[in-house]
Amino acid sequence: MPYQHRDAYTFAMTDDGVQQVGSELSIARAAGLDVVEASDTELPFSTRSTIRLADQAQFNPMDVMEALIADFRAQGGVLIEGLRVRSVSTENRATVFTSAGHVRADRVVLATGIPVLDRGLYFAKVKASQSYAAALRVPASTPIPRGMYLSAESPGRSLRTYPTDSEELLVVGGNGHQVGREPSPKRRLNELLDWAAHHFPGTEVTHTWSGEDYRATNLMPFFGKMPRGRGKIFLATGYNKWGMTNSIAASLAISAEILGGHVPWADTIHKRTTSPAGAAAAVALNADVARTLSESWAKAELTKPETGSGTVPAEGEGTVVRKDRKPVAVSTVDGVTCRVSAVCTHLGGILSWNDAEKSWDCPLHGSRYSPTGEVLQGPTTKNLAVLD
After folding, report:
1. Would you give the distance in Å from CA 191 to the centre of its chain?
2. Which of 26, 90, 93, 366 lies deepest, with the highest CB count within 10 Å?
3. How far apart are CA 134 and CA 215, in angstroms?
4. Which CATH number applies to 4-61+126-216?
């Protein structure tokens, strides 16, 4: 698998960021990491505080995925793609019910970003966030940073490179927000692109994309046996944008538990996930969800009812209207206008239009749907009702 050796930097531009960088430096040193303060960076702007961890690995996560899949198949594993898990039963052997049939197994691991089962209420213990990234072709006359850079404060900014066969692209990311609560995600993406163009003049955008991450209430991942799963269902979630490390930690701990081993540090993380501070954060998160649910329904009730031939949004746009007191999500994408229920099939949140990804997003727990109502991301497993 191809990878590059790069120094990793955390930098700060504000007072809050300086404090966070100082805390990271202290913790890293306490953990025995050779992190040092850096007075010089390759960035085209000045920073107030920067630390560096030398000689880290930079790689494309899809290369890792392909290597893991190849090894999995070489060991006799069977990989089935393009199906959606609907539910899991634990009667006798565990049974996974999918959109194309069912599969039986002794153990089931739900590593789906957020669990698609509501047992344990993990959807209520994590916050769904969406952030953006772009690959940029930079003129040869403009130097680009060789290290991996991450800002300590919000709005987040990250920079690194991606070498191809013919060139090296600059990858910038950040400007995240809670899923379904941003009036214009496209504006967030454009702000990131404008920031990159300002600091790296003459750049050409080759690709843009977004990622959805789940942040546990106390910042520690959840993994292990799922409650009321009879010891047959395991879960992993809450990676807080550190999936390439936290997922490995979760897989090691789950594998050890299934095979009868023991990973001492896993006990420490599990204790943290049930701390009073974590419980208090979960209460605050769910109070916010309840308020959002109430406010979104109140707003939907105030929406003017449709009249005549119905609403037809402009290309790339979507809106929520009211038809016989029912919220209806109407969008136009690639010249096709679709009308689906505007009520999330998970817990009834009113959806909002994502003008960057052309999707319907739920502000409660981060479920997302295509313009035609198909599930894109959980925790929901049910499509929206089509109203045409």
Report:
1. 19
2. 366
3. 22
4. 3.30.9.10
